[in-house]
Amino acid sequence: MQVRGMGGNAAGGSAKLVVDHATKHYQTRSGVVHALEDYSMTVAEGELVCVLGPSGCGKSTLLWAMAGLHSLTSGEVRLDGEPVTRPHPAIGMVFQEANLLPWRSLIKNVQLPFELKGLKPEAYRERIDRLLARVGLKGFESKYPRELSGGMQQRASIVRSLSVDPSLLLMDEPFGALDAFTRDEMNLLLQEIWLETGKTIVFVTHNIAEAVFLADRIMVMSPRPGRLTNIFAIDLPRPRPLEVTARPHFFELVGEIKASIDHGAGAKADVELV
Amino acid sequence: MDSQLRDQIPSFAKPAKDDQAVAITNLSALTSALGGIRTWAEIGLIALVAVVIVGGTEVLLRVLEVPHYIMPTPSQIAGALIRDFHLIAPHIGVTLTELVVGFAIGASVGFVLAAVITQFPLVEKIVAPYILLLVTTPMLALVPLLILRFGFGLEPRIIAVALASGPMVMINSATGFRRVDLAKIALARSFGASTLQIFLKIRIPMALPMVIVGLMIGSIFGLLTAVGAEMVGGSSGLGNRLAYYSSLIQMPQFFACILVLATIGISIYVLFFWIGKRWASWEA
Fold first, then answer.
1. What is the pTM of this model?
2. Reported ipTM
3. B208 CA: distance to closest CA in chain A (Å)
4. Residue in A27, A113, A172 closest to B191 by CB
5. Got the DSSP string for A189-236?
6. What is the Cβ-side half-sphere exposure of residue B254, based on CA atoms within 13 angstroms?
7. Dihedral (C-alpha) B53, B56, B58, B59: value to the nearest 10 degrees?
8. Chain B residues touching A56 at Cβ < 8 A
9. Which residues pair with A229 in a beta bridge?
10. pLDDT less than 70: residues of chain B
């Protein structure tokens, strides 16, 4: 089940996203930080890949580079064969802690991408309504972010990204700030949306159980410099019910990944087990 | 803007609390004063205390037979205000004109400068000492000089008001514009936002609460400066009337002018309180 080596491809599907020898160094007051070192991977069309690693291992740096939000020191990211050097309309990004604009109501937050793209949000009203209803936010359109729970805020943020119909969704520890129950609920919802829409998703997390529950494949990263150390293919059948997380096979997978991180990184890795 | 983001570590750590910067001009004192009134009992109590204070002052001044040139009674002040309002009214117009025109100029320049300067850290460092100079120096001190140059008309006062209010609007707006939330800017960029769009849809709304605070303080400083400038020279405006009535020892009229000034000041305060409530309430 464990696929060793860099840039291992999933069986079948064509390459949607390719990260080709990505290296990112940046300057801080205390010197040069090697955030990402010669990182390569391929994500197949319609695949759900989790990038797993401890805090500060360069996961976010990698994701921001994939989104075209910052440049790489060397190497490149290609979407459908085209290099990504700037934000791309086919790429949707879901940020940590929802990242809603507090001065806008929920509906105005969801309409933001349309405004920025010079489109009339009213013309997409039906699509937005359908998505809001899908994630259970119908009736909350006029609420402000501070009036919504963390889970609702993150659901709104997902709707905001999906509303412009990207083919690739990048998610940067989106559920990290949520409590365990809400997180389970969100993971289940994300799996459903993914199965319904067939979007390609790259999901960054430091939570092993979350990665095992969601992923087709898990890319394990080592910290400083961020390198790809292991790739795990997760063979749990879909759709995965929450109960799967209580089965022995699930624990085996989590344990195996945990062990690989402990050995691979040498030092103790502060990765959440559950 | 691009370069600012490009080499930042993607970090979503909560931005440092700005409470310190806002504390001197916190709107919460106002909120509790204006927004906290809920029941008729509370309103009744507030009215009762006001009646006791005004009535008590009236009784005390009468009982102690304090001469009106030292301290007129509330009823004398009210009488003067009603009787001589037609004499005071044109001067209210003069003061308000100076205030509105001077503030409009000062606030516009202050806001634009804050928006521009905060985008260039080096420029901000170079300009900062001069802004501090303008904020801390009483602009009233320049009025005699301005009168020499511009005469006894409205111009020197309008300039003084602009000079007093502009820097106040600027430093507070600059504090607002300095609050950069990289995650929100990255969000806008991920949807293909231009620099102008990021400015209009992210930076300005984020700065708005502090801009409103700046406008409130700036306008109050403008009022103080307008009245002060009128006392220094010229023959019109409420400040001029204060000097005029006190020289004639017409204390009821003098206090009537003060009452009008207090009303203007409170109106400004309330106006910006409501603006803040409407446009900046998300930051509570």
1. 0.80
2. 0.84
3. 10
4. A113
5. HHHHHHHHH--EEEEEESBHHHHHHH-SEEEEEETTTBEEEEEEE---
6. 17
7. 180
8. none
9. none
10. 1-38, 284
